[in-house]
Amino acid sequence: MSKIIGIDLGTSNTAAAIMEGGKSTIIPSAEGTSLGGKAFPSYVAFAKDGQMLVGEPARRQAVANPEATFMAFKRKMGTDFHYKAADGKQYTPQQLSAYLLQKVKRDAEAFLGDKIEKAVITVPAYFNDNQRQATKDAGTIAGLEVVRIVNEPTAACLAYGIDKKGKDEKIMVFDLGGGTLDVTIMDFGGGVFEVISTSGDTQLGGTDMDNVLLDFVADEFKKETGADVRKDPMATQRVREAVEKAKIELSTTFETDINLPYLTAVDNAPKHLAFKFSRSKLESLVEPIVQKFVEDYVGKKLERGIDPMECVAAGAAVQAAVLTGEVKDVLLLDVTPLTLGIETLGGVMTPLIERNTTIPVEKSQIFSTAADNQPAVTVLVLQGERPKASDNVSLGKFDLDGIPPAPRGTPQIKVSFSIDANGILNVKAEDLGTKKAHHITISAPNKLDKAEIEKFVKQAEQFAEDDKRFKEKVTAKNEADALLFSAEKALKEHGDKVSAEDRQNIDRGVSELKEALKGDDLAAINKAKEALMKASHKLAEEMYKAESAKAGAAGAAGAAAEGDKKPGDGVVDAEVVDEKKEP
Amino acid sequence: MSEDIKEPSEPTTAPAPEPAPDYYKQLLLLKAEFENYRKRVDRDRPEWLRLGRAEVIAKLLPLHDLLQHAHDEVKAGHADTPLAKGLDAIFREYEKLFREEGVSRLDPLSKPFDPHYHEAIGFVDKAGFEEGAVAEVLQAGFLLGDKVLRTAKVRLQKKSGG
């Protein structure tokens, strides 16, 4: 299925976009890639050698070839007006638009490496049937099947995803272009946009504001130096660029400098322009803070975030993707709103699928038993952002039993989470030794409303400090448990290799740590842990001396120091086995 | 006037199970799209690096122009001064930097106007130029490799006697 391109066929600039993987991509013009400029200036020209120029090159030669350079032909769409070139040839607005569309098609094909045959083209809301038909004809001449004509304000709404909000509302689209202003009031309901009213000024745009500023600065400069920059086209251009930049800067700052050294010369003496421009001065000349003005006027916050130069083309691409069915498909790729995981030793939530993961997805992790000869593990499926298992939502639980008697940490239990495209979660636990497996299916774990999701995420942020402490405590306790386990084991197996005094030291360390673990004092636990670790080192040393070749015993001591293993403290539960470390 | 965005759903009393979408087809489409995207990314990566350099160099060009103005002024009145010689050296360094970065200067004077490289600002009447040829360069143009970094802003020769 070939792509449908979305085209904003504008009066002064044309832009095009295409949907890729559910997101719109603006097509850069072949010339525009050099610096930023992605748009296609809506210019067509016929050079003296007969060559047709379209877009940027046509604009560059407009001054030199005015009688055969055509622009703003959108204004004549749907009329029987004919443009006459110097050689007597005549062109309809549709034809000129078609040349522009052809260039867009060509550049898009080069950019995508794919043929483009269909297009969605936007038109102003006030275009009548004749004008719409003419736009369609232009597409046909260019070799594009125009599958839909869309109103520009509708496209803007689509680019902002207003149709996806799931509520009916009235929308104002305020489109202040380079040369025109269009304001449209629309009604959105039942998946349909309807234009209630549209108005504007076809002769007012950002360029007019720049002209006012340019005149002001030029007048000031003339007062000061006697030189009129408007007589010098290069100087005019530099001032125009500078005031445009200043205008943008003054939207966020109160004052800016315009510095243009060597702007022009009077009697071969160079004249420099240095000018302080304040926001209040700017506001007295034009209404610069257009967005603020509109917000104050309607008493509502604006939707923003999409480059206004690209917004309409992006919306046309969205409409194109709707027509190919692509958007519907792609939107099925939802994300998990909250983290999913299981409870592990010490009441900890161990995440398997993090929030905002695109579904469908499958993730698995190997867990193990927490006690010797543990016959079963309980898999408690959790949803939420908090580290403490009980602070999260429990989605379901099941036991995997029949685990053959084995030392703690030996059995390998693979827990897999898979979410299909419909958001249905399947959790499976498998004993890799016996191949015995058990699973649970939880339908629609995502079916929380937005407010609930927000609440959970907020809570997680709010309790971050408490949660950190909880996690520290559990980690310390688990580490201490593991140390106790390996110290006792080593003492039982190799106790005869050290002196009675060393044995007593270890015994004391063990009982002190056990005592500390009964309480919640983190400092006491850590202190007792250190003491036991120190006492156990003696044993490890002796073990090395006696059986330097036996790696197993040394491994036990090493693992204890790293705190990888945790003996059961009455909780029969799954335990995380760090896959990077050998047990 | 209105446009259908989605088909309005039929009112139903009980939610009917949605037909299963064709995931295999979607997978193929998405995979093909991703493959094409990857190819384009691979192809365009050197281009992005070039563009990043181009952006910075292009921003430096106006400063280069200004320094050139200052240089011209100094050369006109004080050619033999240490200041002028210092500036000469600075511009030799500039030329070196441009060469290293693959930046070259367009030299359109008296050549035919070409809108792919030049931007016409207006006309001028100067002796010794063919009609329509570039008779005055108002702002120098530059290439980065074979791509236009900045067009040359030029004036063209008027029709003789016109």
Salient structural properties:
heterodimer; A: 583 residues; alpha+beta; 6-stranded mixed sheet; 5-stranded antiparallel sheet; 25 strands; 38% helix; 26% strand; elongated; disordered C terminus; B: 162 residues; 3-stranded antiparallel sheet; 3-stranded mixed sheet; 47% helix; disordered N terminus
Describe this structure in words.
The complex is a heterodimer of chains A (583) and B (162). With 583 residues, chain A is of the alpha+beta class. Helices cover 38% and strands 26% of the residues of chain A. Chain A has helices at 56-60, 93-112, 129-141, 152-159, 206-225, 233-249, 279-285, 290-298, 308-324, 326-331, 450-462, 464-494, 500-518, 522-546, 551-562, and strands spanning 4-9, 13-20, 23-26, 40-41, 43-46, 52-54, 69-71, 83-84, 90-91, 118-123, 145-151, 169-176, 181-189, 192-201, 255-266, 269-278, 340-344, 348-353, 361-368, 377-383, 393-400, 413-419, 425-431, 437-442, 575-576. In chain A, strands 1, 2, 3, 4, 10 and 11 form a 6-stranded mixed beta sheet that branches. Residues 329-333 and 551-583 of chain A have low confidence and may be disordered. In chain B, strands 2-5-6 form a 3-stranded antiparallel beta sheet. Chain B has 162 residues and is of the alpha+beta class. Chain B contains 2 helices and 7 strands. Chain B has helices at 23-78, 82-101; strands spanning 2-4, 103-105, 118-124, 134-139, 142-144, 147-150, 152-157. In chain B, a hairpin with a 2-residue loop joins strand 5 (142-144) and strand 6. At the A-B interface, helix 1, strand 11, strand 14, helix 6 and helix 10 of A face strand 1, helix 1, strand 3 and strand 6 of B.
